[in-house]
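About this split. The held-out portion is used to measure sequence recovery: a designer receives only the structure tokens and must propose an amino acid at every position. Recovery is the fraction of positions where the proposal matches the reference. Here is one held-out target exactly as it appears in the evaluation file.
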């Protein structure tokens, strides 16, 4: 269950996904992009808490009634966070990172938010210099009439960028769409590796969010989750930690 939380970002929101030659486009009007309020009747709320007191970041556990997938979502519950909000969360992630390293946690999923958009070649340098195999990247786009949006692109082995597939997306949208640059990526990262520290300190990086492993542990400790899994072992947890690029972009403009 992936819920699409649409945002109004200076115009129309353009979303696309590229994977193994298959193009999938969605928009806020699509079935998978159904507004949250229309999904409420099908959602079971399990747990919700503020990650930091007074901060809009929340940890939410929920599931669809007929699904075996328990969603553990780490989300920013405002379209207008402040830089203080984002820095507080960044400090919280740093504390979680220390806990994971201390517990000898090694390879963990990471969502990396960049300070600003970078080119494909700069992204490849960033990944290769830090011995990271990127899984998917998030690309900012713009149209000739000022609308901005994004593409989700899955990388192949060797961090190769599927240029032709990206070009095919931007050519079929019915508008003159150009790529601004890459603003975030996801990858599995080894916390015990010095390359992780190097990535964390890169001038190109705002946040290496490795909290997914932490929140999966938190979800497994939840009593309602334990009951669901005891009743049916097919229940499993899917942790979603999203990048904060658009929130960072908004906060810097306010």
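Reference sequence for scoring:
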């Amino acid at each position: 269950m992936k819920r699409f939380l649409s945002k109004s970002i200076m115009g129309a929101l353009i979303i696309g996904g590229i994977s193994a030659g298959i193009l999938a486009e969605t928009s806020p009007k699509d079935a998978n992009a159904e507004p949250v309020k229309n999904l409420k009747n099908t959602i079971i709320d399990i747990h919700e808490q503020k990650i930091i007191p007074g901060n809009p970041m929340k940890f939410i556990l929920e599931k669809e009634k007929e699904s075996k997938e328990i969603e553990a979502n780490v989300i920013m519950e405002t379209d207008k966070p402040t830089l203080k909000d984002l820095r507080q969360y960044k400090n919280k992630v740093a504390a979680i990172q220390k806990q994971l390293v201390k517990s000898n946690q090694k390879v963990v999923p990471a969502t990396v938010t960049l300070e600003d958009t970078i080119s494909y070649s700069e992204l490849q340098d960033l990944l290769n210099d830090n011995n990271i195999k990127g899984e998917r990247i998030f690309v900012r786009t713009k149209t000739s009439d000022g609308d901005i949006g994004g593409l989700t692109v899955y990388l192949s082995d060797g961090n190769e960028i599927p240029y032709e597939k990206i070009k095919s997306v931007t050519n079929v949208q019915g508008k003159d769409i150009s790529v601004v640059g890459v603003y975030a990526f996801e990858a599995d990262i080894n916390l015990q590796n010095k390359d992780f520290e190097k990535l964390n300190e890169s001038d190109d990086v705002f946040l290496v969010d490795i909290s997914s492993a932490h929140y999966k542990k938190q979800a497994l400790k939840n009593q309602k989750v334990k009951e669901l899994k005891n009743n049916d072992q097919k229940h499993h947890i899917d942790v979603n930690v999203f990048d904060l690029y658009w929130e960072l972009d908004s906060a810097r403009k306010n």
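Annotator remark: Helices lie at 36-39, 83-102, 120-129, 163-171, 194-200, 212-221, 223-231, 245-253.
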